[in-house]
């Protein structure tokens, strides 16, 4: 079914003998005794409270809880989201916008889940990013755990899955309207970017280096389905690489990058220091057209502790401004970024991220 049509489906709530019955496109049904039955993205059926007041998001799913304006329900975070040793909360947009969350109890150590701490905090529901993780949490804590999708959205199939997941989370958190608001905003942004660039050629090839996945990487780390490129119809030189998982970045050979010789290079600034080190210590890179012509530009991290959809859209507008200045002459990328952050996170935090990473600018390599 078309996403726009799905977005128009109305939640029907009927009160029968004091029990709510939800009919929401198959995601939630048959409430009784204060619980509802949820079908998650893994196809699992989970009984969750009809009223969820406390929640924990594991597997990088806290971000989407914040997106849904439900940060006040969060009672625990993951180590990587904290401000303690080993944490990188100050680098994550959703934590920068909600710094108080970084002081909440931590429910993981690295990638290891602390089931005892989750049980102690006793949230009404937990979100997880895989069926195996969800089954483990649920069996060891007795707390209903719902599988959600928080990964990449570089393909239409991924975006559909992500929007379905947002709706499920919105249902569980009683934030259905907010989920639809976000989905409408993402869809309208995608359409705006496509309309500006449809049928227009920049006559430039592009490449993105410094893609983080699992760790920080250098200039040969890229993405065949990089959403900011996809959204503005950019000619990504890595687009035809056969990758087994479109959700992840991957490494290309140095020789391949040199052969591609892109006109413009964009760098996700989480990997900027590594990219600078790569290009400084490899003379062949200095012959790349983009470096010779000083056409290297910095981007905010779409991928840092999973995928930041707000930074993804902000990056797309900046990429559009670089590639199609006439079509984006009415766009100030920094002001647009703050509009997007306000929509997703409730705060204008571009300058905070700029201070951390560098922001939208030309880079000397």
In a nutshell, what does this entry contain?
The protein is α/β, with parallel strands linked by helices and 365 residues long. The chain has 2 domains: 3-174, Rossmann fold (3-Layer(aba) Sandwich); 201-357, Nitrogenase molybdenum iron protein domain (Rossmann fold), CATH 3.40.50.
Structure notes:
The protein is α/β, with parallel strands linked by helices. The protein folds into two domains: 3-174, Rossmann fold, CATH 3.40.50.1980; 201-357, Rossmann fold (3-Layer(aba) Sandwich), CATH 3.40.50. It has 14 helices and 17 strands. The strands form six sheets. Strands 7-6-10-11 form a four-stranded parallel β-sheet. A four-stranded parallel β-sheet has the order 14-12-16-17. A three-stranded antiparallel β-sheet has the order 3-4-5, covered by helices on one side. A hairpin with a 2-residue loop joins strand 3 (28-32) and strand 4 (35-39). Helix 12 (309-323) runs antiparallel to helix 13 (333-345). The longest helix is centred in the middle third of the chain and has 22 residues, at 176-197.
Features:
14 helices; 4-stranded parallel β-sheet; Rossmann fold; 17 strands; 2 domains; alpha/beta; 365 residues
* Strands side by side in the biggest sheet: 7-6-10-11
What's the helix count?
Answer: 14
| CATH architecture term of the largest domain | 3-Layer(aba) Sandwich
Main pleated-sheet profile? 4 strands, parallel
> β content, as a range?
15-25%
Kindly provide the name of the CATH class of the largest domain: Alpha Beta
Structural class: alpha/beta
The backbone outline, from C-alpha atoms, is globular
Stretches where pLDDT is under 50 for at least 5 consecutive residues are 1-25
Quaternary organization? single chain
């Amino acid at each position: 079914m078309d996403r726009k049509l799905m977005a128009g489906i109305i939640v029907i709530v009927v009160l029968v003998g004091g029990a709510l019955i939800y009919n929401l496109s198959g995601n939630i049904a048959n409430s009784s005794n204060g619980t509802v039955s949820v079908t998650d993205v893994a196809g699992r059926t989970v009984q969750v409270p009809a009223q969820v007041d406390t929640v924990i998001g594991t597997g990088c799913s806290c971000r989407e809880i914040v997106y849904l304006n439900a940060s006040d329900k969060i009672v625990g975070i993951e180590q990587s989201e904290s401000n303690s040793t080993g944490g990188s909360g100050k680098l994550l947009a959703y934590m920068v916008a909600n710094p108080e969350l970084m002081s909440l109890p931590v429910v993981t150590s690295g990638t290891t889940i602390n089931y005892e701490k989750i049980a102690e905090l006793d949230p009404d529901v937990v979100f997880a990013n895989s069926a195996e993780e969800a089954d483990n949490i649920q069996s060891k804590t007795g707390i209903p755990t719902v599988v959600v999708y928080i990964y990449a959205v570089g393909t239409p199939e991924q975006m559909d899955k992500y929007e379905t997941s947002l709706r499920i989370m919105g249902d569980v958190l009683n934030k259905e309207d907010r989920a639809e608001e976000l989905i409408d905003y993402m869809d309208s942004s995608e359409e705006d970017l496509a309309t500006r660039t449809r049928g227009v050629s920049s006559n430039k090839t592009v490449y993105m280096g410094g893609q983080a996945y699992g760790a920080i990487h250098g200039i040969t780390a890229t993405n065949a389905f990089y959403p900011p490129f996809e959204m503005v119809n950019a000619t990504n030189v890595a687009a035809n690489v056969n990758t087994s998982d479109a959700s992840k970045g991957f490494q290309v050979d140095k020789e391949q990058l040199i052969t591609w010789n892109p006109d413009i290079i964009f760098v996700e600034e989480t990997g900027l220091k590594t990219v600078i080190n790569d290009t400084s210590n490899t003379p062949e890179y200095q012959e790349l057209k983009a470096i010779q012509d000083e056409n290297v530009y910095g981007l905010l991290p779409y991928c840092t502790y999973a995928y930041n959809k707000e930074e993804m859209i902000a990056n797309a507008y900046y990429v559009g401004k670089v590639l199609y200045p006439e079509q984006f002459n009415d766009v100030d990328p920094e002001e647009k970024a703050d509009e997007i952050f306000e929509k997703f996170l409730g705060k204008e935090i571009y300058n905070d991220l700029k201070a951390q990473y560098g922001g939208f600018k030309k880079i000397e390599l």
